[in-house]
Amino acid sequence: DVIREFRDHRFGAADEGPDYVEADENFFEDLVSGVVRNQATVDPAIDELLADGWRMERLDATVRAILRSGGFELFKRDDVPAKVVIDEYVEIANAFFDGSEPKFVNAALDKCGRKARASEF
Questions:
Q1: From CA 121, how far away is CA 117, in angstroms rounded?
Q2: Confidence (pLDDT) at 70
Q3: DSSP 56
Q4: CB neighbours of 108 closer than 8 A, spacing ≥ 6?
Q5: Which of these, 81, 62, 70, lies nearest to 45 by C-alpha position?
Q6: Helix axis angle, 101-116 relative to 82-96, nearest 10°?
Q7: Distance between CA 21 and CA 23 in Å, rounded?
Q8: Sequence-ordered list of residues with C-beta below 8 angstroms from that of 115, at least 6 positions apart, any chain
Q9: Long-range contacts of 114-121 (CB under 8 A, 24+ apart)
Q10: What is the DSSP string of 85-118?
Q11: Using one digit for the tens of pLDDT, what is the confidence trace for 95-113?
């Protein structure tokens, strides 16, 4: 439903403004469906990297979504360089949060990237 909503009503909307960059709809679809399809493997991998006593379910829902998406890309989309994945999701976190969350996302995805793609670090 989310993919259809974006394809039908969000991508290329008339009110996008002058800085609009055309979306890669196929990448978006792979990301959304891949996060859902791989959540059972991505969540435990991220859980392992969190501080003792912290679990994914204790995190803010937006932070959880950012980590799941970034984790999916790091583990399953090796066509995107790890450092690019991390930078992009830190930028997303910055768009939603003014506090320490972007630093947390950076640290968690950095650990995840080092585990998933050690050769890139």
A1: 7
A2: 96
A3: G
A4: 46, 49, 50, 67
A5: 70
A6: 160
A7: 6
A8: 45, 49
A9: 115/45, 115/49, 116/45, 116/71, 116/74, 116/75, 116/82, 117/74, 117/78, 117/82, 120/81, 120/82, 120/83, 121/82
A10: HHHHHHHHHHHH-SSSHHHHHHHHHHHHHHHH-G
A11: 999 999 999 999 999 999 9
- Whose structure tokens read 């066509």? 79
Helix or strand run (H / E) with residue 46: helix 25-49
| pLDDT tens profile 42-95 | 899 888 888 777 788 888 999 999 999 999 999 999 999 999 999 999 999 999
Q: DSSP class of residue 58?
A: G
How much is the pTM?
0.83
- The single-letter code of the amino acid at 73 is E
Cβ neighbours of residue 104 closer than 8 Å, sequence gap 6 or more? 63, 93
